[in-house]
Amino acid sequence: MMNLARWKVILVLLATVLGLLFTLPNLLPSQVRDSLPGFLPKNTLHLGLDLQGGSYLLYSVDTAALRTERLTNIAEDVRAILKEKQIAITDLASLNGEVGLRITDATQVGDALNAIRRAIGVVAAGQQREVVVDTAPDQRIRITLDPAGFDAEAAKAVDQNIEVIRRRIDQMGTKEPDISRQGKDRIVIQAAGESDPDRLKLIIGQTAKLTFQMVDETADPADVAAGRVPPGDEVLASTDGIAPSYLVKRRAAITGEMLTNAQTGFDQQTGSPDVQFRMNGQGSTKFANITRENIGKRFAIVLDRKIISAPVIQGVIPGGSGNITGRFTTETANDLSVLLRAGALPAPMKVEEQRTVGAELGADAIHAGTLSAVVGLAATMVFMLLIYGGLFGGISLIALAVNALMIIGVMSFSQVTLTLPGIAGLILTLAVAVDANVLIYERMRDELRGGRTLIASMEAGFSRAWGTIFDANMTHIFSAGIMFMLGAGTVKGFAWTLFIGVLTTVFSAILVTQVLLAWWFRTARPKTLPIA
Question: Of 74, 409, 428, 464, which is the most buried if we count CB atoms within 10 A?
Fold first, then answer.
């Protein structure tokens, strides 16, 4: 105790100063924070949805639609593959969860089966098989999705959806959204500070799959009206105000993945809002070739299987840039540009739950939490001062103050979201933080009663209480870890606050208390302990 290591003193001073620096921005007005020098921390506690209000959305990923889309794409791939091999087919269709077709020439069944398997049925070593290609009676071939492969694809789609949603919300200007996976195919979105859930839902939930497809103007309109659609074509509804629908080629000539940028602009001729886009190198080349080969024909711009514009190609468009016109307002054009920049959702989603939390509720929660913390700390202070006196009780309270500074500083620095359960975890941490001091002090008393010297009793108080303190706090860490891994939303907030609090509590109760008592001992040279 007399020869306290210098590194302990330095570590305590450094932790206290850093805790104060990272906590201080929470007490300053925003104007003062903005005027601080760049090297000083400016982050404040990031309040969760229940504390500052905002929007809560629960989505489920539509895996059935993902399966249907996957089978449709497989059918189109099979059509193109066998056409290239000059193998005649009939009855190509995607029905009842599988793709089926019939080979016209029985001698070509083997060639067709091998061609399909080479193109879509073979995967690299170590990867999950996605499809199963088998023969059936009457010269038929069946293509089904492998269950394990599709589950892996669906899980990947959910992860990709989360990333796309995050990019979309970030471009809206919403700060630090909390986006997490819930269960197998659900996504929880908590956008604190976002008070317009309908616009948020419009931005998040829209698949935003953009394709460019050629309009087929060679088919007989009477046949199309009667439902006799040529193979490889489809009828899509239109919102361009010119025609209710168009017959387009099913296979997209260009997809939205080739876009590199999209911005809101204004049409030079009409002055109405539009969306100006630019493509990557591959898209630019394709765009130039398509416009060169189809001058005078219509080129449909399709968003989520609805045609928003079908302009006539007037000439070659090099450079891979263009504009999307339609019945846009400035806001809808901006929303579309946000969607296109963020990318399309790999799988469509359905809204399962929607809630809006008012800022007033958050203010009430903060007030109640602050009041609870003040009452709890006051009760702890009274207890420690009455039981252990002004000196040892005061040292415990100083360590408790350093503990609080470190907790708030760490949460401000890491921008961990503080929720109402997180406040409960903070209060619980501070309330039990003095337990370690109680163990140390009581051990000192026992050693003094056993006849040991003053210095030996103080050293034994720390060394022999450490095992109990370690065991008790390790159980807290394990509990917090389990809650964090298995819990969701507010449970994770509570667990994370508790985890941070356990670490800072052990630090403050052991090192801070030890440094302060050592300083007191070397300064006062006491003959007895005040708590004896």
Answer: 409
Whole-number pLDDT of residue 242: 84
Q: With residue 460 as reference, give the H or E element that holds it.
A: helix 454-486
Spatial separation of the C-alpha atoms in residues 419 and 413, rounded to whole Å: 16
Which run of H or of E encompasses 32? helix 30-34
Instruction: Give the residues across from 136 on adjacent strands.
Output: 140
Closest CA to 197 of 14, 354, 11, 44: 354
pLDDT of residue 361: 63
pLDDT of residue 172: 66
Residue 119 has pLDDT above 50, yes or no: yes
Identify the band that residue 125 occupies on the pLDDT scale cut at 50, 70 and 90: very low
CB 1 within 8 A of CB 517: yes
CA quadruple 206, 210, 213, 215: dihedral positive or negative? positive
What is the structure's pLDDT at 489? Answer: 62
Nearest alpha carbon to residue 61 among 197, 182, 190, 146: 182
Which tens digits make up the pLDDT trace of 34-91?
Answer: 788 878 888 888 777 777 777 888 888 888 888 888 888 888 888 888 888 889 988 8
Mean pLDDT, rounded, of the chain: 82
Instruction: Please give the distance of CA 241 from its chain centroid, rounded to a whole number.
Output: 38
Helices (H) and strands (E) in the chain, counts: 16, 19
Q: Which residues contact 52 (CB under 8 A, 6 or more apart)?
A: 192, 193, 359, 362
For residue 377, give both structure tokens. 């700390």
Strands (E) across 36-139 are located at 46-47, 54-61, 89-95, 98-103, 131-136
Residues 6+ apart with CB under 8 A from 45: 26, 408, 411, 412, 418
User: CATH for 55-186, among 3.30.980, 1.10.1790, 3.40.630, 3.30.70?
Assistant: 3.30.980
Each domain of the chain, given as residue ranges in start order, spans: 6-53+358-524, 55-186, 206-355
Quick check: 194 pLDDT over 60?
Answer: yes
Query: Which of 54, 349, 357 has its CA nearest to residue 202?
Result: 349
Contacts of 57 (CB under 8 A, 6+ apart): 188, 189, 191, 197, 200, 201, 204, 351, 353, 354, 355
DSSP-derived pairing of the beta strands 254-255 and 210-214: antiparallel
CATH superfamily of 6-53+358-524: Multidrug efflux transporter AcrB transmembrane domain (1.20.1640.10)
What distance in Å separates the CA atoms of residue 409 and residue 414, rounded to the nearest whole number?
9
Task: Label each residue of 393-454 as H, E or C.
Answer: HHHHHHHHHHHHHHHHHHHHHHCCEECHHHHHHHHHHHHHCCHHHHHHHHHHHHHHHCCCCH
DSSP labels, 131-152: EEEEEETTTEEEEEE-HHHHHH
* Contact yes or no for 66/348 (Cβ under 8 A): yes
DSSP, collapsed to helix, strand or coil, labels residue 273 as: strand
d(CA 488, CA 140): 48
- The hierarchical CATH code for the domain 206-355 is 3.30.1360.200
